[in-house]
């Protein structure tokens, strides 16, 4: 999933603002962290 985040940063959607992209990355990262906590 890390690769997906990097790809988004390298090739962002032209219709999406940088702040929106960053917000999506943070939201996705938080979800991944929550999943790790649940497994742990």
From TrEMBL:
Positions with biased composition (Basic and acidic residues): 1-10
Ranges for region Disordered: 1-22
Highest taxon, organism lineage: Eukaryota
Official protein name in the record: Uncharacterized protein
Native source species: Scyliorhinus torazame (Cloudy catshark)
């Amino acid at each position: 999933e890390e690769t997906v985040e990097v790809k988004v940063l390298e090739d962002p959607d032209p219709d999406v603002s940088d702040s929106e992209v960053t917000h999506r990355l943070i939201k996705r990262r938080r979800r991944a962290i929550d999943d790790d906590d649940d497994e742990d």
